[in-house]
Amino acid sequence: MATVEVPKEEKDAHAASAPQQSEPKTITLRIARINPSEQHEPKFEEFKIPVQKWTTVLEAILFVKQNLDHSVAVRYSCRQASCGSCGMKINGKPRLACYTKISELDSPVITVEPMNNFPIIRDLAVDFKQMFATHKRMKPFVINEESEVKPGTKEFVQKPEDLEKFLQFSYCIKCGLCNSACPTMSTDKSFIGPQGLAQAYRYTADNRDKGKNERLKIVDESHGIWRCHFAGSCSYVCPKGVDPAMAIQLLRGYLLGFGK
Question: Is residue 163 part of a domain?
Answer without folding.
Answer: yes
